[in-house]
Design brief:
The chain is of the alpha/beta class and 466 residues long. It contains 10 helices and 18 strands. The longest helix has 16 residues.
Amino acid sequence: MLGGLVFGGLFATPPLPAAGTLPIMGFTTWCQSSCGDLWVGSPFNVSATAIRRAADRLVSTGLRDAGYTYVLLDDGWPACAEVAQPGDLHCVTPAPRLPNGDVLVDALKFPPSAPAANDGLKLVADYLHSRGLHLGIYTAPGPKTCGGYTGIFEHERGDVAQFAAAGIDFIKADSGCGDATSLHDGTVLGSLRRVGEAINATGLAGTMLFYIDQGNSNEAAVWNPHGRGVVDSPHARSHVPRALAEEVWSYGPSVGASMWKIWADRFDTFGSLLGNVHASVVAGIPFRQQPGAITTLDAMTIGRAATPTSMTAGQQRVEVILYAMLSSPMVLSFDLGGERGVPPILLNEQLIAIDQDPDVIAASLIESTGRNPWGTDLWIKPLHDGTFAVALVNKDAVAHTMHVDMATPRHTFGPFTGGPDPGCSVASVRDVLARQELGNFSTSFSTSVAAGDGRLLRFTFCPPVA
């Protein structure tokens, strides 16, 4: 035992954590494009049939058994009286609520058990539960969702009760829709607070998870909260946080949320990945994240059909590595029935264990070379058993040899000086992706990292002498 910590993986297996304390893993219907048979023509063209099919594929591919158990139904499930145009399915006029105040579920997309039953969501939830999966639902703290469908504003208690009766396990509230409600006048925060209170009232707090998507209010490359020099827009007026109290990581815990997104939606580009990752670093998320207070980098894009701007295979490895290092929820958004199948890295149990580490620590960016155009990054994450996960990320266009220093002169900064002193400068190193022991190393470790690629390692200090 060194400094109160046990090294070498000698901790007893921790008890099963409560729901919401760890990053969720699963699948979302919001896949933007290349969705196969999940939806056709419009991301709002969701259906019970497609969700059951996705659930079956999570089981048959082994993803469920690897931990991907949440199926998140995004926008488009309520009934709509008038769509924008055939094939588009943006809703212009939501269908009226039922006399009891419930949201009317689209009976064509989610057929009920009887013509007036309005229980199409419950039938889907029951099916998912029978397959060992959970169902998530989408709404927004405004009169309308981003797609123009019925929102939860001023109906929070009734809608949450409706979701609970349907067997919903997860509620997503999208704060980035329209300007009928605003961060600055208390309407958004009031609605979100009422959602949390309504979840408590159902008795499902801790099992019905609450996720706040802060929207894309921070999407611009330049922080310009007052819209200086640009056309004033509903988006800029209503949804750009202008004070720390309006940042979701500040108010999220107080309204009962356990998960939130702070930055832009993810797209299948390397720039999109790095933008969200570095936004988390700049915001200081590694110093705030803890069990039950988890920041997501948004849905992963690995596995999607390739386009001219898609990430390369190496960049996709970097994506999965960084999600695991930052303990981000690993939510998939690709065609589970596609010919390419499931990327094997998503089933790597050693990588998943790093993402699901019970301490839920987000890795620290220890060193970034800043080499043009990208450079190399060294990330380090202490794990529950006293070992360290180490990510070596090469964003450059050429290969680089990267180093991890394990012994640092007194009073200087080095990779392991920000955490517990391991008490020695010898470590056994494991290649997580290759599932291979690389041996014992003293003082430093060096390895080559290919261009636009990454390595994920696990360091165990003071290994037993053979």
